[in-house]
Structures are given as C-alpha cells and as structure tokens.
TrEMBL record:
One of its GO terms (biological process) is secondary metabolite biosynthetic process. It comes from Lophium mytilinum. The keyword Hydrolase applies. It holds the Pfam family FSH1. Residues 6-237 form the Serine hydrolase domain. This is Serine hydrolase domain-containing protein.
Length: 251
C-alpha cells in the first residue's frame, strides 16, 4: 500500500517572549480542526529574551522565551503608535524559516500558508510582502532574495502586531535619503486577520491591516477574547472555515 502524500503545510509563528512549545498549547483548539487538512509546523524565534505578555504565570519554567526581532534593539512591545520599530527581517529569522521550508520540501511536501500570533504576525506579513516584492521586481524563479524563497498562498494573523512587516533588508528601498522603508504597494495575497474585541492592543493589528494590506483581499473577523488565541468552539470553527476558504480559493 502506497504512502499517503504529505498534507500542505502551514508555518506557525508565536508571539513575543514565547516559543514553539507554548504556541503549540495555545494553538491546540484550532490545530485539531486544521490537522485533517494541513500539517502545522510551529517554529521557534531565534532571539532569546524575557517572557512576553500573558506568558506568566501559566508558562513559568517553560523557557527559553524567544522573539522574531532582537529584544535589545526593539524592546518587547514598541511604542503606542508603532513608531521606532525596525521593519527588517534579520538573517537569523530568514534562516529559521528556510530551514523549515527545506525540511518540508525534502519530504515531498509544500508550504502553502503562514499564521502568526501577535509579533509573529509581523513575520507573516513580511513573508507575503517579500514574495510580492520579488515578483514585482522580476526576480522570481532564481535564488532566494534576502534569504527567503517561499510560495505562500495565504496568511493568517491573530491579535496582530505593529507595522511595518518584517522584510529582509535586501528588499527594502531607500526613500528621500532616509532610513530603509518597504515599498508602498499593499500586500495582495489573501489574508485573514483575527482581532480580539477585548484585546487592549487590538488597534495595532488594525493599524497593520489598514496601512499594509489591500482591502479587497484582507478579511478581518472579531472574536470575544483578550490578547490570546480564540477559545470557544464556535469561534475556532469560524476561523477554521475562513482558513479553508483561503486555501480552496488559492488552489
């Protein structure tokens, strides 16, 4: 009897001051609904720092706690208006992502989507932005640009973080001689953005969508949570159905 072909893979990115083990627990309700269709690969950020919001006391002694940006450079949460945060995806992050992609492809699988919680949503946005920048500049099909080479068909963010997306410096462009900035084109790859109605930081996730995503391909849904993953059966079913829609429409 021949082996079953690999399921399509979704890469999963935890929030600031967390890790893959913790996010595996936080994602468990939704993961049970997605795993009949997808393999979920949950990654660890490359930078170690203090525990992030909502991690203690439940996940005490579950470190090391990791980040997708360097804590010493960017702080842990940024300013109220999302200013002063670097928009560069550091090489260490690209290395983590591409190692995972290569491992999936070596088994005959394909990475088709990415989901991120809080700070992890900046990684997802950056991956989608990088893909589109490469295609727009006519660099597709060659070697990885900025250390990245992905073919994501959709992205999902939970309790999104501040703009800008994390994009490799090689794909940044100079503007008026100032610091590097990402091109102004909005992300057009289909995306789902899950916002917590009681999340005290929900305005930053909305800011990311408003400033960086094309309104025609970005859908926002609200759930009755604070700054954590959806809890209720009904809300997780709703998120699952939206992810399945993205997948079916992108095939």
């Amino acid at each position: 009897m021949s082996a079953q072909p690999p399921k399509p893979t979704i890469l999963c990115f935890h929030g600031s001051g967390s890790n893959a083990m913790i996010f595996n627990v936080q994602l468990a309700r939704l993961a049970r609904l997605l795993r009949p269709t997808f393999d979920l690969v949950i990654l660890d950020g490359p930078f170690v720092g203090a525990s992030g919001p909502g991690i203690l006391p439940f996940f005490e002694d579950c470190g090391p706690y990791t980040y997708w940006t360097h804590p010493a450079r960017n702080g842990t949460t940024g300013s109220d208006k999302g200013t002063g945060i670097e928009g560069v995806m550091l090489p260490e992050v690209a290395d983590v992502i591409m190692k995972a992609v290569r491992e999936v492809e070596a088994k005959g699988g394909e990475v088709v989507g990415a989901c991120g919680f809080s700070q992890g949503s900046r990684v997802v946005a950056g991956l989608l932005k990088a893909q589109e920048e490469v295609e727009r500049r006519g660099k597709g099909g060659g070697e990885a640009v900025g250390g990245l080479k992905t073919r994501l068909r959709f992205g999902v963010s939970f309790m999104g973080s501040y703009p800008p997306p994390l994009v490799p410096a090689e794909l940044q462009t100079k503007k008026d001689g100032n610091a590097d900035v990402v091109g102004e084109e909005r992300i057009k790859t289909p995306t789902l953005h899950v916002v917590g109605e009681n999340d005290k930081w929900n305005y930053v996730g909305k800011k990311m969508v408003d400033e960086c995503f094309d309104a025609s391909t970005a859908k926002i849904i609200s759930v009755e949570t604070e700054h954590h993953m959806p809890i209720s059966v009904e809300e997780n079913e709703m998120v699952k159905e939206e992810i399945m829609r993205l997948w079916k429409e992108g095939k």
